[in-house]
Amino acid sequence: MKKVVVIGGGIVGLSSALYLKRSGFDVTVIDKGDFSDNCSYGNAGYVCPSHFVPLATPGIVQQGLKWMWNSRSPFYVEPRLSWSLFEWGWRFMRVASPEHVANSAVPLRDIALISQRAYESWHKEIPLDMAYMHKGLLELFQTDEKEAYAENLVKKSKVLGLDAQLLTKEQILQLEPGIEMDVRGGVFFGCDAHLYPPKMMRSLLQHLTDIGVSFIPNAEVIGFKKEHALIKDVRTTKGNVEANEVILAAGAWSGELSKQLGLKLPMVGGRGYSITIEDYPQMMNYPAILMESRVAITPMDENKMRFGGTMEITRTNRPPRMKRVEGIIRGVQRFFPKFEIPMPKPEEVWYGFRPCSADGLPYIGRTAACKNLVVATGHAMIGLSLGAGTGQLVAEIIQGEPTSMDLSSFSPDRYA
Ligand SMILES: Cc1cc2nc3c(=O)[nH]c(=O)nc-3n(C[C@H](O)[C@H](O)[C@H](O)COP(=O)(O)OP(=O)(O)OC[C@H]3O[C@@H](n4cnc5c(N)ncnc54)[C@H](O)[C@@H]3O)c2cc1C
Fold first, then answer.
1. What share of residues in the chain are helix, strand, coil (percent, to 5)?
2. What separation in Å is there between the alpha carbon of 143 and the centre of ligand 1?
3. Closest Cα to atom 12, ligand 1: which residue?
4. Model-wide pTM > 0.85
5. Fewer CB within a 10 Å sphere, N or C end of the chain?
6. Cβ atoms within 10 Å of 369's Cβ, excluding its own
7. 46 CA to middle of ligand 1, Å?
8. Cα separation of 175 and 233, whole Å?
9. Pure H helices in 176-286
10. Structural domains in the chain?
């Protein structure tokens, strides 16, 4: 039986393991952690075809530069002398154009719909315990500028065949009776779903164990034994693991690791934080994105509210910056003045590093530099949403089948 080694036990790695095992491969997942936490656990849980606009958009660089001087703002780049950061930033600025946004919409919609169907099958057919709900998502705004953006977003969504509707404040209050809010209006995306990430990840791990996937925890991949553009062994801190095929799904660490294979995957880690409160007194009915604050709120798993946000381009060994967490709380209270969120202690705050590619699109596919490698990373803000579908596509690639969508926009060789 062909041996496939998956590097990384986040949603992308585990989903790849699921589809590869189902296709008859001998699958081993290696992680430098113990599989109990990574970026795939503390996120907002959105499974959201509405997110067809990539991170690299016109105006984001100027906005980011303004925000850089505000310690509580939603975006921050830690100034440092780093060639990888410089290269990523330069490419990001160059690509952030209206054409890039237009060209990315269809591939992002397609992979999101494949992924949403996959999650629905996990929820109904396996079935995984994941508190999955397909009830929609609100994007709320307060200003003229964001209202104009929202109108445009609704038009574009309709062109893409996605269910989106512009709502007045009164209509929003009907959806969220009893919640006091300061909003001008919003968009309702009926196409979106959400789930409770820790429940889904634990349930998926259990299912993978039951079907015979092997796991090597606390083993960091530190190199590869390569012969003639083929990986023979994956070298880890716990010894070498033989592989016929390798999946690189190491999240924000994938860019650095890929250099050892002669690949060029410009990437940075974009740190975000979240606070989860059980039995929240003001449970909302719908997940909501607060557009001006750039904060995501999700009512999850019946009794939990999760508040998350911030994009902090920083080193992965930096301690949490509590001002950013304060920024999230203030961002919530700007829209919901009655919401009380106690400031967590530094050791209590959850954070994770989003794997951000240089153009906001994932890297999925084979590469010329290494014939038995499939790259599956770089999903940035939407890695959970696209995770299940990415796993399905990875298995199709490994089997040499025609893929369920055209993957050319996601080629890992686009910067080679
Ligand atoms: C606050 C916040 C909110 C978010 N909300 C959403 C949302 O609502 N919807 C959405 O779609 N996305 C959301 N995201 C983004 C999403 O969480 C990520 O895109 C996604 O989790 C990335 O998954 P991954 O499997 O690629 O990486 P990860 O989950 O980070 O997993 C990578 C794994 O690789 C392992 N690894 C790394 N290097 C090595 C090595 N050398 N050897 C062995 N193992 C290694 C790591 O230990 C880790 O376990 C959010 C992110 C944040 C921070």
1. 35, 25, 40
2. 32
3. 382
4. yes
5. N
6. 16
7. 14
8. 54
9. 197-211, 254-259
10. 3-410 (3.50.50.60)
Atom of ligand 1 nearest to the CA of 379: 19
Tell me how far apart the alpha carbons of residues 237 and 239 are, in angstroms, rounded to a whole number. Answer: 6
Residue written as token pair 């789930």: 195
| CA separation for the pair 196, 44 (Å, rounded) | 8
| Residue spans of alpha helices (H) in 230-279 | 254-259
Q: What is the spatial distance between Cα 144 and Cα 127, in angstroms, rounded to a whole number?
A: 44
Q: Is the dihedral of CA 387, 390, 391, 392 positive or negative?
A: positive
178 Cα: distance to centroid of ligand 1 (angstroms): 35
Ligand 1 pocket mutation, candidates 192, 363, 384, criterion most atoms within 8 A of CB = 384
Instruction: Fill in the amino acid letter for 300.
Output: M
Q: How far is the CA of 115 from the centre of ligand 1 (A)?
A: 16
- Give pLDDT tens digits for 167-194: 999 999 999 999 999 999 999 999 999 9
Taking the C-alpha atoms of residue 291 and residue 288, their distance in angstroms, rounded to an integer, is 9
Which residue's alpha carbon is nearest to atom 44 within ligand 1? Answer: 31
